[in-house]
Amino acid sequence: MTKIEAFLKNSIKSLGSITLKDFLNIVLYHERFGYYSKENIIGKKGDFITAPEISQVFGEIICYSLLLSSNKLEQTKSMSLVELGPGRGFLIQDILRTLKKLNLTLYQKIKSIFFLEKSKKYLNYLKNVHTKTIIIDDIGKIPDNYNIIFANEFFDALPVRQYIYKKKKWHEILITLNSAEKFIFSTAKEPVRINYFFPEDPVDNYTFEYSEYMINILSFIFKKIEKYGGVFFIIDYDRDTNQKDATLSSIKNHKKTGIFDDLGNCDISHSPDFSLIEKVCKNYKCSIFGPHRQSVFLQKYGINERIDYLIKKNTALSNDLLLQKERLIGKKFMGDIFKVMIITDQQQKYNFF
Ligand SMILES: C[S@@+](CC[C@H](N)C(=O)[O-])C[C@H]1O[C@@H](n2cnc3c(N)ncnc32)[C@H](O)[C@@H]1O
User: Fold this and answer.
1) Is the terminal CB of the chain with fewer CB neighbours within 10 Å at N or C?
2) Closest CA to 280 of 290, 288, 268
3) How confident is the model over 206-256, as pLDDT tens digits?
4) What domains, with CATH codes, occur in the chain?
5) DSSP state, 50?
6) pTM, to two decimals
7) Which residues' Cβ are closer than 6 Å to ligand 1?
């Protein structure tokens, strides 16, 4: 039995059960045995690959969208960039390179670049991204300033609680052990008190996945944007709320695994619910654009033209570039399952579609 398994089993034996959130907190974040203490989790040799790791064009298009749709950005005296869960920092590097090339004046207005990153394994990459880099462990440390914020595949990585709707009541899903001492899911007998964020009128057996931490981060950022201005890009899997089943899943080496398999060595994530993000946002004076499918967003802001241009400049890379494009916008790949939502202040006019 691994150390992490023994630790979890002992906790369950003494408490009777633990919540999914507590289970995930250990499995993902344990300082020595948790998933985010592992080397090389992102990329071809890792467990999964993300859009900025697939192609530089992803960050370039996000930068184009910002420049094309926020024409009053020039008026901001200074601004900060913030990325939530930046991993190796490829996205910001692509955005910075593009911004520097297309609008040097705006680029020079960047006061600081904040990275909210949990994994110590990425800190060396992130420190070297830019001289203005500041690594933070708390979103409360971002400045009272105009902030441009990015979250690509960040919210899906956060530990969630799960609740199941049965006979008009919500019950929390817990983790316990069966007679053979194997981990199993169980449902708490007593119903929970619900809050504003729970779905209204769900079907029986609907499983709601909920991260208080996500709600806190969103609320904090929306408030900051409302007061000081800013733009917030959220790109992630989008939960299909017509499906009642939970979305939590586990992968290792690009292959699906069971949630209780090889604990601490598999990436466990879920699909955030964009309608929940909208619900939080409605409490603030902010504007919401989207969510749009990633394929629609990237095509609207010029992925086809950019890839054609790069192919013309280097025909030897033609196949690679077309493959990168297919992975970002193809229906079988990221195109339809990822959504892009942009939240802005209402103090200036933005024309994101
Ligand atoms: C799926 S990866 C995405 C990485 C990067 N955004 C990309 O697109 O390549 C999730 C990232 O979120 C980070 N992360 C997970 N939980 C976090 C937390 N509670 N606070 C800060 N970062 C976290 C992970 O370390 C990882 O860098």
Assistant:
1) N
2) 288
3) 999 999 999 999 999 999 999 999 999 999 999 999 999 999 999 999 999
4) 35-160+211-238+273-345 (3.40.50.12710)
5) -
6) 0.97
7) 36, 42, 50, 52-53, 85-87, 91, 116-119, 122, 152-154, 157-158
